[in-house]
Design goal:
Elements (H helix, E strand, L loop, with lengths): L5 H40 L2 H34 L2 H35 L6 H30 L4 E4 L2 E4 L2 H5 L4 H29 L5 H35 L1 H8 L12 E8 L4 E8 L2 H7 L20 H31 L6 H9 L3 H17 L2 E3 L3 E2 L9 H32 L38
Antiparallel strand pairs: 1-2, 3-4, 5-6
Helix pairs in contact: 1-2, 1-4, 1-6, 1-12, 1-13, 2-3, 2-7, 2-13, 3-4, 4-6, 6-7, 6-11, 6-12, 7-8, 7-10, 8-10, 8-12, 10-12
Length: 473
């Protein structure tokens, strides 16, 4: 349709659904850990502010978690429908890794989520805190398995190809493949930063509207501490990830940097901006900083790395795309660092909650963490092309035999349904944020449980079947 091949449509469809999906798990990873910190501070300090913030953000977490689960199911089906040859070829590795995610992380989250959401006044505080911790741990375990699978596709290891299929021969090598540790750290920090910026923007928005309560101030303060601490760590983690990528996927780095031919013995400049042209094999309108490319990518003054023209044309990623998605991600990272440093300066001046320009900047930066995650994901996935399993299986060999018409129609359905379903969910989350955290008053005691069998019908059991008469047990 319109000159777009079935392969391109399958890639667009998967990219569209993943782009919607990835923002929800990233938010739940950060929010789950934030909720654990809030409840821990409440139990430690008995300050009602932390309890009220927990009750506020747990609602948003519940909606986000639900949308993440629903959007993830669609992706799982696409592996079988649109990428059946990939599933047949690499299912011996990716199938078990995704199954481990369900058997560990998802069951852990599902088992304790109900207690975390509805058990505040129904179980003891220690048990409820344990449930919150388990949900937070479940989100991190889920990210671990998913990134192990995706990292294996980037830097495959621990396998052999037998009978046209991947056979794992060393599961530790499969899981702890060369890029996995870097990608796990980078993605987890990105989730924490994205959540902190969202929380901080919520607090700043309420302060600009005159809602200057202890709960709102605490929300902003905690978010800015996270930004100022994690942003520089994330930049360093990204640098180490880049060095790892240069070692194992050099053509991806060449495409990201927009370099085509690097002269032997000469330092490589950093191209700040430009327009890589895949047809002419040049980067037009390049604005360069001498030596900086060598410094960043080799940590030496005149270090060398290969240009994109050194690789066969059939193996080159699309430099025009990844050149800019990478710069969006890095540019936002430095803006996050600037926001954190500005907040630190205002904090020491005593003006953190009273600077309109800072608060406006914090509001504008609210979605920046999620935008940076999307830009980074596009850089990683498009930069791996034309391989679906790097160096092992090409994307063109992985796609199912569907017609362009069928993929166009299904893509149209996905676009309409996603914007309706998830657009409604995001709108509801923003409405919750607009209400803001409320004062829930003094802590309510847990209801007493009548074990005589004469409890009223609306009494709530403290454990499964405990409300049933003894004679029935």
């Amino acid at each position: 349709m319109l000159g777009i091949s079935a392969l391109d449509l399958a890639r667009i469809q998967f990219g569209f659904t993943v782009s919607f999906h990835i923002i929800f798990p990233a938010t739940t990873i950060g929010l789950a850990s934030y909720l654990a910190v809030l409840e821990g501070l409440w139990l430690w300090r008995k300050d009602r502010v932390y309890r009220d913030l927990y009750h506020f953000w747990v609602k948003i977490f519940a909606v986000t978690f639900a949308m993440g689960v629903v959007s993830g199911l669609v992706m799982a089906y696409q592996f079988g429908t649109n990428w059946s040859y990939f599933s047949n070829f690499a299912g011996g590795v990716t199938g078990p890794l995704l199954a481990y995610e369900v058997l560990t992380a998802f069951f852990l989250e599902a088992g304790f989520l109900g207690v975390a959401l509805f058990g505040w006044n129904k179980v003891g505080p220690e048990l409820h805190f344990f449930a919150t911790l388990m949900v937070a741990l479940g989100t991190l375990v889920s990210a671990t398995w998913i990134l192990a699978s995706n990292s294996w596709m980037q830097t495959p290891a621990g396998f052999e190809v037998e009978g046209g299929r991947v056979v794992p021969v060393d599961w530790l090598a499969v899981i702890f493949n060369p890029s996995f540790p870097y990608r796990l750290i980078h993605m987890t920090l990105a989730a924490f930063l994205a959540t902190a910026l969202f929380v901080g923007a919520s607090g700043a928005w309420h302060l600009l509207r005159g809602n200057n309560t202890a709960r709102v101030r605490t929300m902003l303060s905690m978010a800015m501490w996270m930004a100022v601490i994690v942003a520089p760590i994330q930049i360093e983690a990204g640098d180490q990830h880049g060095l790892n990528t240069l070692k194992y996927q050099p053509e991806k780095i060449a495409a990201i940097e927009g370099h085509w031919r690097n002269q032997p013995g000469e330092a490589v400049p950093l191209i700040l901006f430009g327009w890589p042209d895949m047809a002419t094999e040049t980067t037009k309108y390049a604005l360069e900083v001498p030596h900086l490319g060598s410094v960043i990518l080799t940590h030496t003054w005149d270090g060398q790395f290969r240009g994109l023209a050194d690789f066969p044309a059939a193996d080159r990623p699309d430099s025009t795309v990844v050149f800019w998605t990478f710069r969006v991600m890095v540019g936002l990272a430095f803006l996050m660092l600037a926001l954190g440093l500005w907040s630190l300066w205002l904090r020491f001046k005593g003006d953190l909650y009273d600077s309109p320009w800072f608060l406006r900047f914090a509001v504008l930066m609210g979605p920046s963490g999620l935008v940076a995650i999307l830009a980074g994901w596009l850089t990683t996935e498009i930069g791996r092309q034309p391989w679906v399993v790097y160096g092992v299986m090409r994307t063109s060999d992985a796609v199912s035999n569907h017609s362009a018409l069928a993929l166009t129609l299904s893509l149209g359905v996905f676009v309409v349904m996603y914007f309706i379903v998830f657009g409604t969910g995001v709108f509801y989350i923003l409405k919750l944020v607009a209400v803001g955290p409320q004062d829930h008053g003094p802590e309510q005691p847990r209801p007493a449980i009548d074990l005589s069998g004469d409890a009223p019908l609306n009494a709530r059991p403290s454990r499964p079947l405990s409300a049933a008469p003894d004679a029935t047990l």
